[in-house]
C-alpha cells in the first residue's frame, strides 16, 4: 500500500521550533518530488513547501520563507520540515504529499497537528 | 508568485444537479492545473490533473477543462458523496492552491 505517515506535531510556544517528519512506504520515495501543505482551523489548504526528488530545487510559500526548511533523506524514505520562529498563524494540520503525476499531489498523509500557543 | 482565485466560495446544490466551479490564475499556467476534493477529517484527494485528465478511480461525472489562466471543474450529476470542499492547485511555477469552494446540500 502506498502510504505517507506524518509525525512530530504538538504544542509549542510562540517563537519556538518543531521538526515534522513524513515516512513513505510502498513506493520508491527517491523517485518523487514531495510537498508540505497545511490547513489552519476553519481555513483552506495552504501550500507550504516543495522539494524535488534530487533535492536541488526547493520552493517555499512567502508566509514561511526564512523560517521553515524542507529536507529529505531518500535512504530513510523520509521528508522533513524544520519550523522555526513559530507564531499562532502557523497553527495548522500539516500534510505531506507526493507528486506522483505531473506536478500534482497524488498521495497524501493523514496529517500531524501543530498548535502554537502560550 | 502566481495567485489562484476560485469562484464561487460556496454553493448549495441538490443531488442530480450539474455543478461548475471556476479557477483563475493570475498569469498563464499552461495546463498545469489540478483539482482536489477534501472532506472533513480526511486527506485531500486528487481528482483531475493537467487540467482535464481524470485520476485513476475517480468517477466520470467529474471533468475538467481550460488552459492558460481559466479553468473549470464540472460535476455532471451531483451525488451525496460529492458534498465536500474543492480546491484548484497550480503546478506551473512553485505551487499554490485556490481558496476552495464548499459544495453544500440545498
Overview of this structure, please?
- The complex is a heterodimer of chains A (118) and B (106).
- Chain A has 118 residues and is mainly beta.
- Helix content of chain A is 0%, strand content 55%.
- In chain A, strands 2, 4, 5, 6, 9, 10 and 11 form a 7-stranded mixed sheet that branches. A 4-stranded antiparallel sheet of chain A has the order 1-3-8-7, with no helix packed on it.
- In chain A, a hairpin with a 5-residue loop joins strand 4 and strand 5 (45-51).
- Chain A starts with a strand and ends with a strand.
- Chain B has strands at 4-7, 10-13, 19-25, 33-38, 45-49, 53-54, 62-67, 70-75, 85-90, 96-97, 101-105.
- The mean pLDDT of chain B is 97.
In short:
Chain A is an all-beta fold.
> How far apart are the first and last residues' alpha carbons of chain B, in Å?
36 Å
Number of strands of chain A: 11
What is the structural class of chain A?
mainly beta
**Strand proportion of chain A:** over 45%
SSE layout:
The complex is a heterodimer of chains A (118) and B (106).
Chain A: E1 3-7, E2 10-12, E3 18-25, E4 33-39, E5 45-51, E6 58-60, E7 68-73, E8 78-83, E9 92-101, E10 104-108, E11 112-116
Parallel strand pairs in A: 2-11
Antiparallel strand pairs in A: 1-3, 3-8, 4-5, 4-9, 5-6, 7-8, 9-10, 9-11
Chain B: E1 4-7, E2 10-13, E3 19-25, E4 33-38, E5 45-49, E6 53-54, E7 62-67, E8 70-75, E9 85-90, E10 96-97, E11 101-105
Parallel strand pairs in B: 2-11
Antiparallel strand pairs in B: 1-3, 3-8, 4-5, 4-9, 5-6, 7-8, 9-10, 9-11
Amino acid at each position: 500500500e502506498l502510504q505517507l505517515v506524518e509525525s512530530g506535531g504538538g504544542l509549542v510556544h510562540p517563537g519556538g521550533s518543531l521538526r515534522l517528519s513524513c515516512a513513505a512506504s510502498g513506493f520508491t520515495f527517491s523517485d518523487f518530488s514531495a510537498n508540505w501543505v497545511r490547513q489552519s482551523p476553519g481555513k483552506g489548504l495552504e501550500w507550504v513547501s516543495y522539494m524535488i526528488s534530487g533535492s536541488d530545487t526547493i520552493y517555499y510559500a512567502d508566509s514561511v520563507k526564512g523560517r521553515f526548511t524542507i529536507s529529505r533523506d531518500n535512504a530513510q524514505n523520509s521528508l522533513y520540515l524544520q519550523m522555526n520562529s513559530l507564531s499562532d498563524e502557523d497553527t495548522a494540520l500539516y500534510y505531506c504529499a507526493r507528486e506522483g503525476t505531473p506536478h500534482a499531489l497524488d498521495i497524501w498523509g493523514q496529517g500531524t497537528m501543530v498548535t502554537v500557543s502560550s | 508568485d502566481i495567485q489562484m482565485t476560485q469562484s464561487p466560495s460556496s454553493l448549495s446544490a441538490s443531488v442530480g444537479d450539474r455543478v461548475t466551479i471556476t479557477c483563475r490564475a493570475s498569469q498563464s499556467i499552461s495546463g498545469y492545473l489540478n483539482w482536489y476534493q477534501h472532506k472533513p477529517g480526511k486527506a485531500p484527494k486528487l481528482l483531475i490533473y493537467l487540467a482535464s485528465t481524470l485520476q485513476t478511480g475517480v468517477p466520470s461525472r467529474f471533468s475538467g477543462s481550460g488552459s492558460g489562466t481559466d479553468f473549470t471543474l464540472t460535476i455532471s450529476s451531483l451525488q451525496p458523496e460529492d458534498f465536500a470542499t474543492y480546491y484548484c492547485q497550480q503546478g506551473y511555477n512553485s505551487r499554490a492552491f485556490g481558496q476552495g469552494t464548499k459544495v453544500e446540500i440545498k
